[in-house]
């Protein structure tokens, strides 16, 4: 049966399957630390271990999508077994008895619960309200004259230079000033290039699926040009290193 220690952490012994589908369960001491946002497990109670002995496993609570009792089909010969679904991996754990199993499932689900405010959103913070009320002063740009053309049924405004030209100096032959593809910033990763603008904000948010209206926790990244999201922070970092496009789930 799990108990709460002096640091308000839920602790207790469980058996964990070291490798999925191996059928081999090992006895470990688990600590559910909501302040540190992680589930840790040790070889034994840390008080009985040598000084400096660290955890043998860890799982961030933000990665947990669901904790449920294992079905007989999943673990037919393992009583009091429950499963933690985290990212693309499953962790099977065995409790001491029925009550122990239910207590752990409830505690883990509560710790990793995604709460969505009613009414569609949270009130704006003071910083956001200030930014909306007093937007930063923009750099004053010189006035530019334009000429209007209809190209392919679309109204296009073309800058006119002071010498009366079309303002297309340095452009590719035959290209239109407005229709040219901008070369100032072209993201090569799904979110931002390594030489692109710095991140304005990044962190975990919850989003609702388009087809399945369930809420899932995703890692978002915002810069001056794009906002994108990843399954986890590690996936975001990998995409920057490997210059890969993010996979949206």
From TrEMBL:
Q: From what organism does this protein derive?
A: Colobus angolensis palliatus
Q: Which PROSITE patterns match?
A: PH_DOMAIN
InterPro entries associated with the record: PH-like_dom_sf, PH_domain, PI-Interact_SigTrans_Reg
User: Known Gene3D superfamilies for this protein?
Assistant: Pleckstrin-homology domain (PH domain)/Phosphotyrosine-binding domain (PTB)
Tell me one Pfam family matched here.
Answer: PH
- Domain of life (superkingdom): Eukaryota
Q: What is this protein called?
A: PH domain-containing protein
Domain (PH) ranges: 7-113, 198-249
């Amino acid at each position: 049966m799990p108990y709460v220690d002096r640091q308000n952490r839920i602790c207790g012994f469980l058996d964990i399957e070291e490798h999925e589908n191996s059928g081999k369960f090992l006895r470990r001491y688990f600590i559910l630390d909501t302040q540190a946002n992680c589930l840790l497990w040790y070889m034994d109670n840390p008080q009985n271990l040598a000084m400096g002995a660290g955890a043998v496993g860890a799982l961030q609570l933000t990665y947990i999508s669901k904790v449920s009792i294992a079905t007989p089909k999943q673990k037919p010969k393992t009583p009091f077994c429950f499963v933690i679904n985290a990212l693309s991996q499953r962790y099977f754990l065995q409790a001491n008895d029925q009550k122990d199993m239910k207590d752990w499932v409830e505690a883990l689900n509560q710790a990793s619960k995604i709460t969505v405010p009613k009414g569609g959103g949270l009130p704006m913070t003071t910083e956001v309200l200030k930014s909306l009320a007093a937007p930063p002063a923009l750099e004053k740009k010189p006035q530019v004259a334009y000429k209007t053309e209809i190209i392919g049924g679309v109204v296009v405004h073309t800058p006119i230079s002071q010498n009366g030209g079309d303002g297309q100096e340095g452009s590719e032959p035959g290209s239109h000033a407005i229709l040219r593809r901008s070369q100032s910033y072209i993201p090569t990763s799904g979110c931002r290039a390594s030489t692109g603008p710095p991140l304005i904000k990044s962190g975990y948010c919850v989003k609702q699926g388009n087809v399945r209206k369930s809420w899932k926790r995703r890692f978002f990244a915002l810069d001056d040009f794009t906002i994108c999201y990843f399954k986890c922070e590690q996936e975001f970092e990998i995409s920057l290193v490997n210059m890969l496009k993010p996979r949206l789930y």
